[in-house]
Structure formats: structure tokens, C-alpha cells
Amino acid sequence: MLAGLGTWFVQPDSPPTFGPIECDGELMGPGDKCVVIGGAGTDFTYESEQASRQARLAAWRDEPGDEVIGWSLIGFGVLGGVAGCGAGARRREPHLRDDLTQVPPELRAAATEHRLGDHSQTHRTKPSELWAAVGGTVFFVAVTFALAVGPATSGGWVGLLVLFTGFGALSCLAATVRQLFVARTELYLFANGLVYAKGGTVTAFPWRDTEIRRSVVKQRNSSTPDYRYWLQRPGSPSVELSPTLGLNDFGPEMERRLTTDRAPADLDAVAAGQRIQYGPLALDLTGLTTPKDTIPWSQIRAIKIENGQVQVWQTDARRAQNFDVAKVPNIFVFLTLVETLREAMRRT
Known about the structure:
This is PH (Pleckstrin Homology) domain-containing protein. It holds the Pfam family DUF6585. This protein is an alpha+beta fold. Among the domains are: 1-11 and 40-99 and 126-184, no CATH class; 266-347, PH-domain like (Roll), CATH 2.30.29.30. It has eight helices and 18 strands. It has a four-stranded antiparallel sheet, with helices on both faces. The chain has a four-stranded antiparallel sheet with strand order 12-13-14-15. A hairpin with a 6-residue loop joins strand 17 and strand 18 (321-324). Helix 7 (250-271) crosses helix 8. The longest helix is centred in the N-terminal third of the chain and has 29 residues, at 64-92. It is elongated, with a radius of gyration of 34 Å. The N and C termini lie far apart (78 Å). Mean pLDDT is 78; it is low at 1-12 and 88-98.
């Protein structure tokens, strides 16, 4: 960083120097013209030579090399400092190490209190991702500023380079903001529930009284969608799990375990004559109830998820009734019960 500052503020090459404007050894003044005979040069006036010298001096001042090198060295110095701080923070906090089999005592106590069973999986945010985003932001901002106040003022390809580095700065800034929102998030999956920890707050979510909602988040240049989750249970604040957490493996396993735990209990309740509510939808032995009407099981052709919507297809209907999947809690428990009840009705 010091080398970068020195390179940026102290230019190693000297500015061009000029003597008095002369024509064949004689001083010229305003309005004079020098005529060159014999093809040894071109004619010039006092004013044209003065303008030429001013242009050369301006070009020296706008020379990009020193500033770009200086800001680049500053940026690399910042990246090195960020990496060192991240490594230091990682060493100071043992619970952020890569050992995902260990559960901190306070989180283990919460799991025991709510009878969550055996620990099976852990997901933690990585501090290195946040530090990398911060370092990238500082680097691109520095380079963009150096180009914008110097050579980019003359336009040309350097102006396009400023647009590129500016876009990089904005992208890194957006990544930094996203990482800040999920920093220090820890998720511990147990047989019968989940423990969420962030910033000293610990919340347990037993499957027996937890609702999980999800929405599909389509990412550019990605063939597989990401999901945003909301967890809620009585007496506890709701928790949002952002796609930035990268729950491509953890999320489906969380849903699978909740479905395994809740589906049998909800099915027993339906068999006992109860109606189970899943957001805007409800089901019982009679059929599926929507805000529009109640559809007997024998008249339901299909229920499926497509494009972030729960589609309810009634026999002989030309259009499906659509419901936002994010508004249907425990969606896979719901789908499991639907298929089980439809199959049972077909048998009878």
C-alpha cells in the first residue's frame, strides 16, 4: 500500500521542459511565423508552437501509467490486509473452523431442551467470502477513481475501461451487502428440528410446530434455482434464510426431515376427521378446499408445483387454480398428504 501511495503521488518521470520559441536561433513573438526552406521541417507560428507545447504538457499530466499502477498497488495491499484480517478473525474464533461435526455447548443445550435428537448436518457462512467481497469492492473503486480523475477525462477506450471497473465495483459492493446480511449465520440440523444462531441469538425450531415456507429465486447464468426460506413457530421470531447462504444441499435435506416428521402426524389428524390448513389451502377426508370452493378428491386431476406456483388441476378444467408456493407452509408435507389421500380415495 505504501508503494502504491508513493507511486500515485510522486511521478517518477519529469515533466517535459521547453526553451524559448525560436526560428533559426532568433526569438519569436506573438504573430511571428517561421518558414522552413529546404524540406527540413514544417512551417509554424508562434501560437501553433505554444499550443503544441501545452498539449504535450497536458498529455504528460494525464498519463495513466503511474496512477493506475499506484492504485493497483494500493488495491492489492488492501486485498492482502483484508485476507490477513480474515485469517486472524478465523484463528480467534475456533467455532468458525471447518469442523462441522462439533456443536457449541449453548446450541447443544437448546437442542436438548426442545428434544431435537441427534445432530446430522451443519451449515455456516464463510468469513472468507465476506472479506473477498470487501477487498474486491475497495480494489475496483480505487482503480475506477484513478481512471476517472485522470486519463478517462479524454474519453476513448479508457472511458470504456472505467465503465467496466465501475460495474465491477458495484457488483462487489452488492455482494458485500448480501454477505453482511448473512454474516455469522449458523444452522444446525437435527433429527427432529433445526437450531438457528446469528449474532448471539439462538432459536430452536422443532419440526412438530414449525412452518417452513420457501420461494424460488432464479439466478442468472444458473441452470438450477435457489430458494429463500422462512421458518416460523409459535412464541419465536420468524427467521429468513437468504439464497446468499447457498442452501442447495442443506435446504432440501431440511425439508425432507420436516416432511418425514410432520406428514404422519398430519395424516393421522386428517384420518381422525380434522381439517389441516396449509395457508390458503386446506384438506380433509372430503377433499381440497381453496378460497374459491371445495374440490372432492375424485375431481382432482393433478396438483403440482411449476414456476413458483402450486397448480390445482380439476377434472375437465381448462385452467388450473394457482397459488404462490411461498404462501403454502410445509409445501412437501402438503403434497405428501395430497398424494396419500388421492391414492386412498382411488382404492375405495
